[in-house]
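agent> Task received from the user: take the single chain below, predict its 3D structure, and emit structure tokens. No templates, no multimer pairing.
agent> Plan: (1) validate residues, (2) run structure prediction, (3) serialize to tokens, (4) report one or two observations.
agent> Step 1 OK, no nonstandard residues flagged.
tool_call: predict_structure(input=
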Amino acid sequence: MAAHNLRESLRDVVSFSQLMAETYAGRLDSDAGVFLDRIREGTASMQSLLVDVVDYWATDTGDRQPYGTDMEAVLRQALLVTDKQITERSAIITHDPFAAGERRLRHTD
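)
tool_result: status=success, residues=109
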């Protein structure tokens, strides 16, 4: 149901941006044309993502059991992988402690 509502909203954005482009054709400056193009590109991308999300959730998980991912370990690994870039840019990376419920992300493959 939520995906349907999101698709409908995206269709409205596409329809109104097309209507605006047609109604004001020749009267919009180049910036407005760029903005309308970005609206079309963004909505096309969102429509594709929605299809992918719906397909993902429709996938049968079968007998697979959910398991947790240690988010602290994920963060440590990400920092190790990006250490060179962090050092080169003199970046300072901080984070708040993960809440108990956020510490382990539950998912299935």
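agent> Step 4: summary for the user.
The two ends are 24 Å apart (CA to CA).
agent> Done.
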